[in-house]
Structures are given as C-alpha cells and as structure tokens.
Amino acid sequence: MTTVESANKILDTMLGHLGFSATIEPQETHDGPCLQIHTGESKALIGKEGDRLDDLQYLVNRILRRHFPKAERVKVDCEHFRSIQEDHLHEEVRGIAERVKASGKSFQMRPLNAYYRRLVYNVLVEDPEIVSHSPEGDDRLKRITISAKSSPAS
Predict the structure, then answer these.
(1) CA distance 122 to 101
(2) What pTM, to 2 d.p., does this model score?
(3) 3-79 has which CATH code?
(4) What is the pLDDT of residue 137?
C-alpha cells in the first residue's frame, strides 16, 4: 500500500467516525499528493476559515508519519477550499512584498498555521529583495514578519 493509499484510508476512517458521508479523490498536485474530499456537508467539514480541515490534515499526516516516518506530507482539501485559499494567500503575499519594497517598512501578517507559513515562505523565497521570519517556539499560529533586505526587521 502506498503512502497516499494509506493516507486515504486514514482519512476515510476518520470521516466515517465523525459521521461524514464523503468520497475522497487522491490527486497529484505541484505541491505533492492531495486528498480532495467531496461531500454535501463541506461547510461543517471545513469549519471556520478552514480550521477543521487544517486539523484533519494535521492528524492524517501525524498518523501517516507514525507508520511511514519518511512519508511526504499529504494535503487534505474539501471541495477545492484550500486551493482557493492558497491562491488568495499567494496574491496577498506578493502584494505585501511589493508594498514592503516600496515603503521600506516591515509588515506583520495575521497569525498562520505551519502549512500556510510554509506557503508564504515559498512565495517569498523567489524575491531576493525580501526577507521574512516568524518567532521561535511551538505555537500553532505564528505571525510572519516581512521586511525589505535593506531594512532591519521590526
């Protein structure tokens, strides 16, 4: 059984225990494997701003890594919610980077979980004029500070 098949089985079992009737479509994306959930109960499954979807993804990957320590991360999406959020975040980050370069002032983003912080860093790594960092620690949600390379981070 492949890691994606294992992740699919883990997610299907979790959704069954939670009482959701859904179909899961494994997909290969440019970011790696994705399990796309199709259900008539998407709002309940996604939660406020995707919080429940984030929790499901976290748990699926934790369980998967327990059985396959070197497994790559599997994205969990529902009715393309996460894909749409990622597109909006990419646009937002590029706009913030442009404003930071124009003004020279640092910008602190809203608190983001590890998944979305990774997306932000992946967008910003392409820009040699921008640096970014988030505070150390084990907090689930952290704010990324985006600064121009020539100015100190605030």
Answers:
(1) 18
(2) 0.75
(3) 3.30.300.20
(4) 84
